[in-house]
Amino acid sequence: MQAAARDLALHRAVRSVAARDSVAPALSRIDALTGIRAVAALWVVGFHFVRGGLTPLHLEQAFPALNYGYLGVDLFFLLSGFIISYVHQRDAASLSFRLVLRFYGLRLARMYPVHLLTLCGLVVVVLVGPRIGFTPTHPEDFRAVDFVYNLLLVQSWGASDDIHWNFPAWSISCEWFAYLLFPLLALGLNRIASKRQAAFWLGAEMAIFALAYVFFFRCDLDNKFDGGNFSQFALARVCLEFTAGALCYRLAEFIDMRAWPWTAVVLAAIIGAALLTTTPARDLAIVGAFALAILASSVPGNLVARLLSLPPLVYLGEISYSLYMVHVPIRMTLGKLVESRLAVASTAGAWAMGLGFCLVTIATAAATYHLVEAPARRWLRRLAGARLPNARPVAVR
Q1: Model-level pTM?
Q2: End-to-end CA distance of the chain, in Å?
Q3: Per-domain residue ranges of the chain
């Protein structure tokens, strides 16, 4: 009992010191949160591949969860809100021009190099493809004006009528929108002074999200891409979920959650979401389970955190952003070739080709991470004069 009391006192003292520090304290990486990124990215990739590239394998029948892989983006939005608050809340809330500019620079250094690489890669595909017998299925998705919108990361702000070019980048545009607003959100987060206030604001935000889910999203979080004007749904989706993730972190600052039965809580949430998959409440229940999984992953020692900290998942989490950004260009090129072969191959041959296609995608993502993403991020940070604390980087998509 005395040891537990000392641990709790030390835990609260560390939080108190961090709260008084106007500059973000040295923060160690939380491996389980990096593992969550892997789950989210693989889920989105699977969702897209069963609709193009691996369609003949009918993976969605063997793995029904792939039908809801669009919710991997919602997991990314929640996770971003949680981790960005963990790393930058106090710096950004100061509204210091230098610190806010530094925050924006770090965010751009994190996401823009791979975005630019994939966007320019598709330019080459569009220009050279017809000469070698490859023509995009939807040429209207590669207009010059939409290239400019994507280049400026404003394609999801109402500039475009739909998703174009490397279409997963719609969520990167949304994230950039959330990052631009984050200093104001951080200012509000810092005004929350107790766990009661944190619980109240998180509860209020989730109630707003539930109402929006029913009356605005019409019980379906998959963006309404085909109807045009998708930006209103995309921006609402990121703002609500990013804020929920940030409030989850703020509540965690006031509560010692290490003794909570996280494994049982998350398992119950997953079972509950699974039971609701055939109801209109499906997406909302899954997002709620996500929030609990993120909280569990931020607390060491429970089974959820240990499983998500397995080295393969952590590595896939490290390369998850590159995987998220390169998988659609691969599907649009190599995926077309593979899909045509799968339809005439034997069962064993089809599965072997499908596995090979997935491994090539992951290998390409790994190469992109090691050769472009990580080096470019370090170079841009040095160029901007941004110096992070002497700690391993925290997992942020």
Answers
A1: 0.85
A2: 39
A3: 34-384
